[in-house]
Amino acid sequence: MTDALPVLTPAAARRVTAIAARQGKPAMLRLSVEGGGCSGFQYRFALAESRQDDDRETRTDGVTLLVDPVSLDLVAGAEVDFVESLGGAAFRVSNPNAAAGCGCGSSFGI
Description:
- 19% of the residues lie in helices and 42% in strands.
- The protein is an alpha+beta fold.
- It has a single domain (7-109), classed as Hypothetical Protein Aq_1857, Chain: A (Sandwich).
- A 6-stranded mixed β-sheet has the order 4-5-2-3-9-8.
- A hairpin with a 5-residue loop joins strand 8 (100-101) and strand 9.
- The two termini are 16 Å apart.
């Protein structure tokens, strides 16, 4: 396993803070990777109520990004951003481990 933990950009941290405040939850975002999507793997984002014992975490502007050990191998060194465009608003992952991606931006291949 690598120590290159994924990080949130300030824009992503601001968005997590806003969502968490609206839902009355802690400002903790869980990033996980599941099989599926059009390229083999897909990113999953969810607000977390608490940290699991084996989670790895990074902090940006008071927001915690949590990643489980299995997902960490697939997203090590990645950057999670929040982007708004005419097509909508979404969290986007810039993943140096992804050899292939898709147009939706939520699926990738290794």
